[in-house]
Amino acid sequence: MKNSYKNKLHSALARNRQALGTRTAKVGGYSFVLCLVVLAILIAVNVLVGMLPSRFTQLDISAAQLYSLTADTKVVATNLEQDVTIYWIVQAGEEDTVIEKLLDRYGDLSEHITVVKKDPDVYPTFAQQYTDQTVTNNSLVVESGEKSRYIAYEDIYEYDTSNYYTTGSVSQSFDGEGQITSAIDYVVREDLPQVYLLSGHGEQELSETFTDELARSNCETVSDFSLLNVDAVPEDCDALIINAPTSDISEEELELLRDYVAGGGKLLVFSGPQEEETLPNLHALLSDYGVTAAEGIVVDTDRDHYAFTAPYVLMPDIESSEITDPLAEGGYHAIIPIAQGLDTSGADSSVTALLTTSDEAFSKISGYDMSTYEKEEGDLDGPYTLAVSIEDSTAGGRIVWVATDYLLDGLYNSYSSGANLDLAMNSLSWMIGESDAVSIRAKSLDYNYLTISSSAATWLKIVMIGVIPVGFLLLGIDEILRRRKKL
Question: How far apart are CA 38 and CA 57, in angstroms?
Answer without folding.
Answer: 21
